[in-house]
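Hey Z.,

So I finally got round to the KG4 thing we talked about over coffee. Here's the setup:
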Amino acid sequence: MKILAIETSCDETAISIVEAEGGLRQPRFKVLKNLVASQIETHRPYGGVVPNLAKREHLKNLPILLAKLTKNYRLETINLICVTVGPGLEPCLWTGIEFAKKLAKELKKPLVGANHMEGHLFSNWLPPIRKSQISPPKADPPRAENLKSQNLSIIFPAVALVVSGGHTILLKMDSLIKWKKLGETRDDAAGEAFDKVARLLGLLYPGGPEIEKLALRQARGKQKKGTIEFPRPMLNQKNYEFSFSGLKTSVLYYLRDNAKVNKADIAASFQTALVDVLVKKTMRAAREFGAKSVLLSGGVAANKSLRENFAIQAARYKLQFHAPLFEYNTDNAAMIAAAAYIKHLQKKRYKLSAQANLNL
Ligand code: KG4
Ligand code: ZN
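And the result:
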């Protein structure tokens, strides 16, 4: 089935066309189109996302992306349209929903809602984009002959960490549709901590990639991981909850108490502390629940240090490690199509209205 997905929950306007097959036993996806219009430059002067500006940009970008899509793609071949209904910023969600409703009516196609966090979770199942998929031929691209070979067969039980700007969630998955939340953050999400610490260091929004860049400067020296011992919040507690606001405050105090500081060292030390907590808690959960695989997704999963440490520790404990391609870590619509497909197969539906606090 061909799915057209629309994502506008935060500051990326995204439209994607994904071909899905295989059912709940072995879902396989082929990403035919994956368009993202980033609003980073719009929000940068404000140091974070301004909801009304984001809404204005979505209104402007959605028709532009759709026009780009229809240039060499016949929308009549679409079987299902889906749109993110939450979690996210309410005015932004509504913009996507209204646009999707209108499009579904025009094309006479069914429309379903999708959960952004399920999107991040199921981004682990998306295959790599091939060059031809970035700019497909004029006619519809032929059915993927190698859809099967692109499939990642993720082995259950799995432990999945979803780390984004708004969420930090650890799950135990028994199957694609059966999971239990082991824990989540009690205060700041991991991405939020990156963004707030970046602001303290005078770096641009979004802070994650900026901190990573600065930390790399430190990594070229001898003290790769940083020399400052920032706290590892809740690391030694026997639960799977997280808390990152104390770590952010420690950086604030460090800056307050030291006249001369090395920002690259702070960035590296902060990143090391945060990565340490995420990796150790995930691996502990994987061992406790006898997981065969660990999955890592969400915007923060774009962080190379986090991915590397996940890979090293997963190998140490003989666990399979899956993380999506970099372009599927941060917000995109291909992952929304994947989430909608799984939901559709379960014959479950989300209400077609903005649900800012929807969760997993
Ligand atoms: O998933 P996402 O695009 O949006 C939400 O659903 O929140 O995640 C955005 C978050 C931001 O906080 C951003 O700073 C963080 O992901 N992020 C990173 C990196 N790239 C994006 N954090 C650390 N390292 C990165 N390379
Ligand atoms: Zn997201």
